[in-house]
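Limitations

Structures in this collection are predictions, not experimental determinations, and the ligand pose is part of the prediction. Treat each record accordingly. The example that follows, with guanosine-5'-diphosphate-alpha-D-mannose as the small molecule, is included so readers can see exactly what is and is not provided: the inputs are given verbatim, and the output is the predicted complex.
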Amino acid sequence: MTNVLITGITGFAGSHLAEWILRNKPGIHVYGTYRPRSRMENITSIRNEIHLVVCELKDSHSVNEMIRTVRPDYIFHLAAQSFVPTSWNAPAETLLVNQLGQVNLFEAVLKYDLNCTIQIACSSEEYGHVYPHEVPIKEENPLRPLSPYAVSKMAQDFLGYQYFKSYGLKVIRTRTFNHTGPRRGEVFVTSNFAKQIAEIEKGHKKPILYVGNLQAKRDFTDVRDVVRAYWLAVEKGVPGEVYNIASGSAYSIEEMLNKLLLLTPVRIQIQQDPSRMRPSDVEILLGDYDKFHRQTGWKPEIPFEHTLQDLLDYWRGRV
Ligand code: GDD
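Predicted complex:
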């Protein structure tokens, strides 16, 4: 009997990962943590096939009790404060949630002497300021974080390394570049723009789409490809290692917006909203996923246009 634990199962990547495991790995028991205030809509369709365990990751007693009950063979640690702008408004809380949650998880695994494999969701944001000659970015690239969020993810990343070295914990770190698809939270750029388009199509909003910095470049992968990568990471990854998960292509946010606009018949005016600009923005993230490909055979399969179509259709069904 294999038990899998997903922290953040009610979230975007967590819900897709749970679905992927249920569909592709029959017989595995899927557990997931939630908090009383968690929104359950992402897991409605699989609610009866998973085991939910209430847990506050910031509280070591709660984490200990959860780990003692579940006794996982694999842990996917996805729960986090994951929106970069929130980390400027609430830097202390971002650092606390992301670092303390992970330390509590590691300490609980040590306390109950579990021999489990733990995937840590680190981030391409850790690379931060990247020079033009450094793309596509490899894992050895210097980390030059540009937000409290990026610093919190660096801490998670290095804690993973340290617990591997100090205690032999089987930690595999994935630095995932931007990912999107149905259920993406509406604050993130692809989802935000798709939702605005859906609202304009329905006549709920004037045909003006508000944007922030359109010049930044990002490497987008479909969330369904990303969760397949997470499974391969624990199945075939080497403990102690770090792997980029990326598509290997980058688009400016403006190019991404233009792709979305091709999917709607409505004419839309674009307007910059100064409140959407950041104190410092990462200019370019373009990942090299060769190390992960060589280790696991993974490569992204879903074309970006397909992902954007699914995302827009998701919002069309909801607004
Ligand atoms: N959110 C948002 N809203 N971003 C905008 C907007 C807007 O209206 N207009 C332009 N942008 C730009 C941002 O300035 C940024 O350069 C880019 O679009 C992407 O923003 P987000 O979708 O918020 O993602 P992110 O790149 O900051 O972070 C995401 O990717 C990381 C991996 O690199 C998040 O998913 C992180 O959790 C993840 O670690």
